[in-house]
Design a protein that fits this description.
Number of strands: 2
Structural class: mainly alpha
Order of helices and strands: EEHH
Strand content: 5-15%
Strand order of the largest sheet: 1-2
Radius of gyration: 12 Å
Shape: globular
Number of helices: 2
Length: 90
């Protein structure tokens, strides 16, 4: 799966979530789960099965984006497939 995630290196404080580019979100089309640092990547992993209004194809892309961001920020992931994080939202 081709990823869309890119690190966001803008310095300073962001005033709005809308200031972030689509490329920092696990779900870029829906702009859900921003991943701008290791803590946000951990949150995206923990909340993966809480995300609603997305298709399995969206989850495939989100998982690939999360893996790429996790590798970049040094966050360990033992899951190799998004279904290991949960198929149904809680």
């Amino acid at each position: 799966m081709q990823t869309t995630w890119q690190p966001h290196e803008k310095h300073g404080e962001l005033s709005e979530r809308s200031d972030l580019p689509d490329s920092v979100f696990a779900y870029p089309k829906q702009r859900k789960e921003p991943m701008t640092d290791a803590n946000h990547v951990r949150n995206a992993i923990a909340r993966f099965d809480q995300t609603t209004g997305v298709s399995d194809e969206d989850r495939d892309l989100a998982f690939a984006n999360i893996q790429k961001a996790a590798q970049y920020y040094g966050v360990h992931m033992s899951e190799s497939n998004w279904t290991e994080l949960g198929r149904q939202p809680r």
